[in-house]
Structure formats: structure tokens, C-alpha cells
Amino acid sequence: xxxxxxxxxxxxxxxxxxxxxxxxxxxxxxxxxxxxxxxxxxxxxxxxxxxxxxxxxxxxxxxxxxxxxxxxxxxxxxxxxxxxxxxxxxxxxxxxxxxxxxxxxxxxxxxxxxxxxxxxxxxxxxxxxxxxxxxxxxxxxxxxxxxxxxxxxxxxxxxxxxxxxxxxxxxxxxxxxxxxxxxxxxxxxxxxxxxxxxxxxxxxxxxxxxxxxxxxxxxxxxxxxxxxxxxxxxxxxxxxxxxxxxxxxxxxxxxxxxxxxxxxxxxxxxxxxxxxxxxxxxxxxxxxxxxxxxxxxxxxxxxxxxxxxxxxxxxxxxxxxxxxxxxxxxxxxxxxxxxxxxxxxxxxxxxxxxxxxxxxxxxxxxxxxxxxxxxxxxxxxxxxxxxxxxxxxxxxxxxxxxxxxxxxxxxxxxxxxxxxxxxxxxxxxxxxxxxxxx
Length: 438
Ligand code: AMP
Known about the structure:
BirA Bifunctional Protein, domain 2; Rossmann fold; 8-stranded mixed sheet; 5-stranded mixed sheet; 16 strands; binds adenosine monophosphate
């Protein structure tokens, strides 16, 4: 018999984990819809060629296979390339600019590690068809709003622009082709440090003086206005870098106007972001409590959709990594930890009371109270234990005496209290008490 186990790098999510994961997803959905984003769902499987040629070095991580008809298929690597396909395929039906959100699994053949899996869930937000810096600002503002709503302490969103790194490479005397190696080396800055990046740059053929210059520039720190002013001075003469700096200034003005607190973002010229399709602003959220990697990241990718659509469709977006958010929230003890979905447990006193008890359960649910029912009448003590073991807070009893008096006994298993409420009003009284947090 084969071992009973799940596939390496892919996880089962048991109920306790799922409840926190759903809380995260519900929070992100609520905030996305508050900004008018619309849901989109696409298949997990795409034609291999849809994904190929868009991911640079990461292409080797794609899971590819042949179906029964010999077609070359692949599991999606992210939800961005499928969005690009959809935008091109339904061009006539989608009014641009289009704000869409999407939640689902993606697959990468990575080496599994803490916070890194082969199947993981992403919640994506993108604004398709707008080059406005307000689109970048809105995505970043939602990111900050979401991390604050989830309770992440001390998170910071690092902001950069691909053409700032490009400019740093150019003023350091590197050719356009060599700049690609600079992105890749700088991307590892937080993992391997300045010395590691230096070694990597030298290995890729960058001269020592150029490597030192690059390292000095990518380590400029300070308030956003200071960092941008310093870069403006150092990159003077590089038109594309200066345009990038002006663009980042406009994005930051948008963030300020949207009310994003200044301590929630920073300009970090060392932020590269791995994916090769980014063309403009890039960003990544980090927290000092999780040095292993970013919580999420995104950026502007103005050329990707054009590969499918045949015309440029500027787009900016981000992907929340649900697994990573969940892992960090567990570790930092953030978010609610319900043990079950039910709040009330309706006991069954005896066979004669089953119908009345089921009717009571239906009333509670209609009043918005999640309710479990016992499945076997008899021994109330055992039923209370069952409710308590599951983590259900309230146990309700409707025996012959209660029915005669027109009452229901409500036992609060967590507080060890008990009271009798009028049968006719029990559902509304409990619903009211629960919404008031009693
Ligand atoms: P990316 O699509 O590479 O820009 O990643 C966006 C976010 O998805 C990251 O910041 C992570 O939170 C999450 N993510 C990416 N790869 C993985 C993975 N292998 N396992 C878990 N989460 C991941």
C-alpha cells in the first residue's frame, strides 16, 4: 500500500487553519469590493504556451504535463498571466480600466521551505488598462489597509521603480543587457546582504568600481522625499530614471491624499522583485517579525497583456500570499481563532422533543446564529460535553418542562452561566446579545 500522505510542498488545511485562512480571504474580499473591484475566476490549468516566455528564469518552476489528447498543459504559476489571457480573449466585453480581484491556488516547483510551498493560494488585485499613478497608489493603499485590518504590527511597504534600478545600472556604466543581472543580484539583497550581492555582481562580470557604485546607490535610505531627491541628483542625465522618480513622487502624493499613514511605506532602491514582467513601480510588504521574506508583492507590468492582446494595456497589481499571511498570523498570534463555525448547540432531550428542537434550531439560523443540532436524543450531560468539546459556546435545552413553561434554557458553556429565555423571543434575544458582544 502506498504511504498515506499528501504530496511534498502541498498542504492539507484542516478546519482550525481554514477558519483563519477564510477570515483573511473575507477581509481581503471586503476591502477589495469596497474599492469596487470585481471577482474573476479562471482555470488552474492553462495551455503551456500561455505561460511560457513570460516568467524569465522562473519558467523552469512551471508544472507541465500532457493531457490525454497529447496537448501540452501547465498548472498556473500565478494569476497574473491568466488575467492577461482573459483581458485579451474577452477584449470586447471588459470595460477598461477594469478592477478585478481573484483568489485561488498557484503552483511552482520550488524547494519547499518555511512559508514557501509548491501549492499556495494567492489573492490578486489588479487595475487593468490604466497608466495613472493613482492606480498604483490605490493598489498600494489597499495593501496597507488590508495589512492594518489583519492586525500586522510594524509592517512596511517598500516602494521602488524598475527604471530607478535601470538608471542605477546605466549610470554605473552597465549595458542594457547587463542590467538584467543587476536586478537578479539586487533582488537577493535581504537574503545575502551587501557583500553577497557584491560577490554576485562581480561573478556576473560587473567591474568592481561599478559594483561598488551600484551598492552605494541601492542602499540610500531616509524619508521618501529625501531618497528620491538623492536619487534625482545621482541619476541626473538619465531621462528614464528621472521619469521614474517623478512617477514615484506622483504615486506617493496619491498615497498621502488617500490617507495612508507615512510610516506604512518607504522608498527602497534595493527592491527589485523577481518577476521579469514588471516595467514600472514595484513594491513589497515586509514585517520585522518575519525576516524570511515578503508578505506580498506586486507592481506595474505595462507590456505583459500586450503579448496576448497585440496592443499595450498598462496594468498594475499585487498578489497577497495567503499561506504566508496565515503562517505569520499564527506565529504572531493575530486574528480570531474560533474552534468551530457554530455558536449554538441545540440538544435533544428525548424523542418527543425532536421536532420542537429542530424548529428552534431553524429559527436560530434564520436569526443569523450558526447552530449545530445533536443527532441522538438522551443524556444531556453527554450532549453538553460534545458541544463544549467542539468549542460551541451556547447549549440550548428544550425539555418537556421548558415546553410547558414556554421557555428555553440557554447554557453558556464558556462562562458557566445558565438562564431561561422565553421560547417565542429566544432567537432574537440571543442574536441581539451576540451582536452586542455579550
Ligand atoms: P509573486 O507572484 O512571486 O510576486 O508572489 C506574490 C506573493 O505570493 C509572495 O509575496 C508570497 O506571499 C506568495 N508566494 C509566492 N510564492 C510562494 C510560495 N512558493 N509559497 C507560498 N507563498 C508564495
